[in-house]
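Dear colleagues,

I hope this message finds you well. In preparation for our joint manuscript, I am sending the NACHT, LRR and PYD domains-containing protein 3-like (Gouania willdenowi) sequence together with its predicted structure, so that both groups work from identical material. I would be grateful if you could confirm receipt.
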Amino acid sequence: MPFLFSDEEYVKLFVMDKERLDNLTTLRRQRVSLVDELEGDVDDLVEGLVNLEVFTRDDREVVLCLPGPRARVRKVLDILECKGEEAAQIFFSVRRQPLKEEKTLHHQSKDFVKLKQKHKDVLRRRSESMLHYNTRHGEKKLFSEHYVNLLLVDGHQGLENKRHEVLTFGQKRLIWEQKSSALRKINSAELFSNVNEKRSVKKVLVTGVAGIGKTILVQKILCDFGRNENHLTFDFVIHMTFRDLNLIDKPTKLRELILRKNGHLAKEVDNILENDDKLLIVLDGFDEFKHYRSSDLDVFVTEPDEEAEVQEIIGSLMLGELLPNACVLLTSRPTAVNHIPVGCIDRFVLIAGFSLNEVQDYFLRYFQDKDLSDQLFNVVVANKLMLTLCYIPAFCNIVCCILKESNCLQKENPKTMTDIYVQYLVALLQSHTKARTETCPQGHKANSMHEMSDIVLKLGQLAFQRLLEHQTLFYGSDLDMAALEGYSVVSTFLDKTIVQEQGYTEEVFSFSHLTVQEFFAALFCAMTDHPLPNELQNTGSEEETNSGHLQLFSRFLSGILSERNTNILSRQAGLCCNIEKANSYRNKILSDLTRLCENGANILNSLHCLFEQQDPSLALEVQPTVLRINVSDETLSQMDYNAVKYFLNLKEGNLLEMDLTGTDVGCDALRDLQPLLLRCEKLWIGENTLTMDTVQVIADVLQKSDLLTHIG
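The corresponding structure tokens are as follows:
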């Protein structure tokens, strides 16, 4: 059957075809005048086309063997016509430059080609190894052999900055999988491909929760570019991290920022910046930038050699005022995205982490043994909490580490997030000290454990103080860092960067992830007599709770102070809990739950603290006059539902009300909660969640119960 087009479609095809042939048509029409114009410069022209990789060396020999300059020009035009539109376009762009500048460009292009390859070699060398949080000397793995594909999804993410990012992840993971057929998945090589014919993509924002793989994606891009596998439309890729940019405390220039870690580009950096349409700048970790609130500017930097504050340079890059033709890739956690200038981003990409297949693939690459990896993967599948966490690559690595070091975990599998972190800590400490204690006399083993516990507490003190100050970077010259000098175990939990300054270098440290810092901070608070942060003592104020700053810290603290984890830490890590603080914190959980059940304020974080304790007797001690459960305005994850069910399954009697407004609760979750809903007198649920399925679930509840009297 012949293809049929409307008149409008025929016109569109004609216009597209005309544009495609424009340079070739011009080449044919101007053939006579081009022969006259170029006969005096044909040799330089041929050399330039070879350097620009339009002509091959064989093409050059074919042209230069002809007698006379006019015959050579005709042969050049013949070859260009055979090579097509792109070759003709490059020819005209070279021809428009003045001859002297053109000759200079031709001589530079030889060096330029060599520099391009040298830069790729540098990026390949820097990105070829995959280093995990606990990698030791001699244990590096090739990135290309251990990289597991990440699920990248086109589309802007709705921000949820009122709670900790990692804890909102569980249910979203399931939703993404359910809707995967309707989402447009992309790979890293397609990040800068045009969204449509009308709009080019220059600025790309990649976002995702902590540990989801943003930096690994950046490493993938650098590695592919260095190996000549992807992103070859760019001549150069410049990589900068906001952790490094935080160390700059005086006015600087974009040129200087680039050369800080790319000194080999010094001779050609001006040419690189002039041809910014062939340049990709990667800015990793915007949420870690200490000036991230100041990037939407009124004062712009427009030249690479213009001196300005670092936030002005970065803001101008993002807004396209500086290097307007360059491509920029920006990564950030969701909580900082609101501070990225509106309108400057052409594409939003969300990293959705691993699917179930990728988790299994990660296990295989980690353990390098199919039978063993399958066995341990089945252990994780049997534990819903661990499986949920494994969708986040950073947690997947932590779980693999636990499985490797502790022979399929302790006898009792972890039930809470704190359980996993405690076993992770114990596994790493035991792995680090095993070789030393096996060769030491028996009396020295206790000394080794005592020394290790002291180091852990010093790390905890550092984490605690800096968490309250909202700081994630620590200088090696700081007094609290000096106290950790010489202890090799510190590198298991802290990342170190050597920063080049004028005339000297300086070490800068940070915990591998913010969650690790929060865990160590809670560990210090639990093991010492240091008072709780003021925000946790002011139980009448909801301000800090709503901000989410110390939510995960408070959950870790509750889990560490639980009886089962204090026993593990004392027995296997020499870390003894402050008993008075443990009792005090239990009382705080009781009073908070009682108060929130009675006044109807949001109770979710307190339910998580109770869940971390895993002590049914504690829930039974909560005796409010009325029972209200408000978890509204939170997108609930499976872990959230687990915390709610844990508490209510231990409480008898009716619920005055349950508020699920703004939680995106679905029919599956309602079915799971159905036994609890039968005890409700009032259920509040948002209209946007009332699908036919959810209405049917609620109708089933109404048929079985006289108690549920109001749906809001």
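For the figure legend, we might mention the following. Residues 99-127 form the longest helix (29 residues). The chain has a mean pLDDT of 77.

With kind regards,
E.M.
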